[in-house]
Amino acid sequence: MQIVTILDKASAPETYEYDLSSSGASSIENLDGQLILRSADGTMLGGIAQAWAKDAKGKSVPTSYSVQGLTVTQAVSHREARVKYPVVADPWLGIDLFEAAWYGSENGQLKVNLRKSGWGQAMHTPGNGQAIFWTAGWDEARTKVPRITEKTTLHQQYDCHVGGGFANFAGDWNLEKWRVDRTAVWSWGVAIHRCNWTTAHQY
Known about the structure:
20% of the residues lie in helices and 31% in strands. The chain is of the alpha+beta class.
């Protein structure tokens, strides 16, 4: 879900509040600008991608979030930025990190396919974004395609994609069961195997 706020003149406010008390969340965690909505037991219910705002010429306008209880405030510092109005600020609320997950086959064995949602792509950033995918993302994948747990290599390939698959042009994540379990960490030789290794410890 996108919540589009349009600032049409210099006298427009520089802060905007969004009340998320109806979301079912018990708390909102701010991870360096990425907001995570959590239930009472700590389960991730969804989140908001990092704040952004742009003026009519596409210039980025300084913006950030702050959280008080279940209210998110977006600050948009447009008055000192010499912007061309209108300015668009667009909090991006999402739930599913993956918009599609399905089974296929390769070499006569299971292939698990995952496609990130737009929100998932926005959340998939180095550091905290990776941590979200390595935890909540893995839980979501197991729910949508339970057979992803059938062999260790599938989890290892998933971790590899999380570790390096930030760009949209990387496309779907394809995890093949026929690949061997790694005895070396997936990052060894990743520039060569690109998560498609053929040996347990080489490339």
